[in-house]
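Feature request, filed as a ticket because there's no other form

It would be nice if the structure record came with a short human-readable summary line next to the tokens. Right now we just get the raw output. Example of a typical job, pasted below so the devs can see what we mean:
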Amino acid sequence: MAMTREEKATMIEDLQGVLQDSKVIYLADIEGLNAVNSTELRRACFKGDVSLRVVKNTLLKKAMENIEDKNFEELYDSLKGNTALMVAEKENAPAKVIEAFRKKSDRPILKGAWIDNVTYVGDDQLTTLANFKSREELIADIVALLKSPIQSLLSQLENKGEATAKAEETPAAEEAPATDATEEGPAAE
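Raw output as currently delivered:
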């Protein structure tokens, strides 16, 4: 069933909106997945906060060409055969979904990815992309790094405070028996 010119224009406009609003875009080949596997992949994407949609290459290319502030040229050669567009907020989310799914299937195959103006082409980039740290993970690492010296300093201050407190207690404890001895001495005579 052929699309009308209006349907194509609407689809291109829709894709443009998705591409314009996204910082994380993956292209994957899911050809050969049966209905059950396709449903499982869609569920995995949903759980991983990844939007998945199968697109027509010509319409996706046209949408990419229409976006002026993003350069998708390096992905144009990937627009052959079956193409699934995967969009997410986290840089590594689609790669993690693909990696996990490939433990039981040879698809999807990563065609390419566009992340914050950097293009990655080819399935050999999958491990690199899966190992990316998300913004939240990077912030957590930075916070941990910043907290570590502070916790160390607090621990040192706490230990120093305890040592000072013990040092202050020790002379008082030593003085008490000396005073008692002095008091007992004259009373005994």
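Something like this underneath would help us a lot:
The chain has six helices and five strands.
The two ends are 121 Å apart (CA to CA).
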